[in-house]
Amino acid sequence: MKLSPSVEETEQYFKQLFIDQSDFQAKRLVIGGTEFRLFYFDTLIDPSNVQDFILKPLLLRPQDPIHEVVSIIDYAETEQADEAVHAIMYGKTVLQRSGESRLYLLGADLKKERSINIPSNERVLRGANEAFIENIDTNLNLMRKLINTTDFVVKTYTLGRLSQTKVAIMYIKSIADTSFVNEVDRRLQSIDIDYVEAPGFINELIQDQKFSLFPQLLITERPDRARAYLMEGKVVVSTAGSPDVIITPVSFWSFFQSSDDYQISWILGTIFRLLRISCFFIAIGLPAVYVSVSSFNPNLLPINFVNTLQSSLKYITFPPVVEALAMMLLLEILREATIRLASPVGQTIGVVGGIVVGTVVVQSNLVSNTMVIVAALTGLASFIIPSYEMSSAIRLLSYPALLLASLFGLFGLAFFFMMICIHLCQMNTIGLPYYTPPFAMNPAKDTLLRAPLWAKRTRPSGTAKANKTRLRNPRGWKR
Questions:
Q1: For residue 342, with 0-12 CB atoms within 10 Å meaning exposed, 13-18 middle and 19 or more buried, which class applies?
Q2: Which of 431, 468, 467 is closest to 207 using CA atoms?
Q3: pTM of the predicted model, to two decimals?
Q4: 159-184, pLDDT tens digit by residue?
Q5: Which of 73, 74, 281, 457 is the residue whose CA sits 20 to 30 A from 275?
């Protein structure tokens, strides 16, 4: 809609549009014989900014060009009413001078955001202690400070018909594959939805496999981790209102990597990486192994262990599969209760739950001592996974593994792991293979092992086709 030079008509248009908005304000000013109108939401603007940087300069120079009068960096002009409406809703102050069919969009919005804190979900012993916050501009500021190069590209646009959520994608132009960046951009811009709740909505709407339990996009709250993946040709997606960013594409092995792995020696990093991957199998298969061995194949164990196992099951009312399911469900209930309740109460629930599981349940002959140990090891093995999404998927996968083991013994468990392997091999993430062989010859692969930095001379070929060289002479001091 084209604007009228009459400030009365413009005011009538805005008042009709925001007729139900009690915090919308239209202020009339007459300065030096010239009439002005200010349009804004008083809940979104900072009154001191409007007073100091808009009104006071206008009182001194009402006839001069507006861009020479106001001292605001966030300044724009428009002749379209629709652009002015969006500017008002984003917290800007819109100014019109009588006789001009032009609106001035002045950034005097109120800045309210929490300070940058340490990461709450991805804490490390070594490394940076900064985490993203809900303000996307602050998040982009953190990334700009970490990557000081003109090749670092940030593209922003808006998603959500009603929410008008600001979304930004980040990549390094000289490293990332252009075709892949265009594909991510195409998928994001094709989202047609009323509002965007990130990262969950974006994760679900752009991933390839809609019915897979395994996470296909990596979510992190750490700027240094986002930078590390950008250096490998990945794309980072940040959304207003979310303290997390999305990294894509990632492989299955990315969910077992931690920032601590790269702050210690490569030998220790490899050991800890192998420990996490071992816990992947423990968290899925340990209850199933317990059920299959106690019900089908006790002869696979040493005779002393069999005697101990049989004695612990002697007075148990329920079969092993029932007690295993009961213990796993009880652990999930305790975990959810601890997360949802307030911190002091949550800690109390954890202590009380541990006492109940460890003493009362065993003394009541509802669950065996061995099953309590198995459940505890299973829970600890799932919690050691750095990614919350992968940890949740692992806990859910342990249930079908348990059911197959209760029906077919160790053959059922072997069949289950075979199906998981087939499923991982046929998955793609934004067009790239999700599961790559753990012992690939490319030294840039970071899978089961954390290779020494001086040996990782090339980047992953899938996402960094244009610039594969990572290191040229890493130990140049040694002749």
A1: exposed
A2: 431
A3: 0.85
A4: 888 888 889 999 999 888 888 899 99
A5: 457
